[in-house]
Fold:
Amino acid sequence: MTKAMILAAGRGERMRPLTDHCPKPLLAVGGKPLIVRHIERLAAAGITQLVINHAHLGHMLEAALGNGSALGVHICWSPEPPGALETAGGIRQAIQFLGEKPFIVVNGDIFCEADFAPLAQIAEHLSPEGDIAHLLLIDNPDHNPQGDFSLDGSRVRTEPRLTFSGIAAYHPTLFAPLEAGKPARLAPLLRSAMEAGRISGEHYLGRWTDVGTPDRLAQLDASLWEQA
Structure:
């Protein structure tokens, strides 16, 4: 069974003062915390074994979600030191809970309506000998007009034309060069694997929002209440 990790250790500096007393993934949109929306979508796709990392105000996340049973999942917590370990470092630290099989990762501070079931199926085909990651790329939002990577058919390339959504499937092999407990950025690992032709991807056209500022949070919140 495919496991998933939700990244929830960021400080949320651009969200201050809201994140001074609340971890960003617990901020609510449409009456529901961002991270709860992820958990519900993962559970709906049959992905119920979750790992969540935390650092800033992590005790609040654990108090709010517990072991996940109320949401139909099982949560394993991966605490990090003050300042956190950055994205790749946080994932490497959590490999002990994720295991040796491919897994899904989603940023805890985004809103997205993606169906995780197809991604879980793709994850099963990642291997140490072949593709070691599959990324969901999106059209560039206003705050990232240059983009991060590009698609050449199903291959992800390093030219910045589309934006990385923060949703992906990974094989643990990608993180093998890293030392557990040490901060590490994700982008260098991805670019190296792209240059070796070992990352596939797709262009996700559904709804997606990087809830990175109070203004974007307020806009998303208002739009979800209008939908309700």
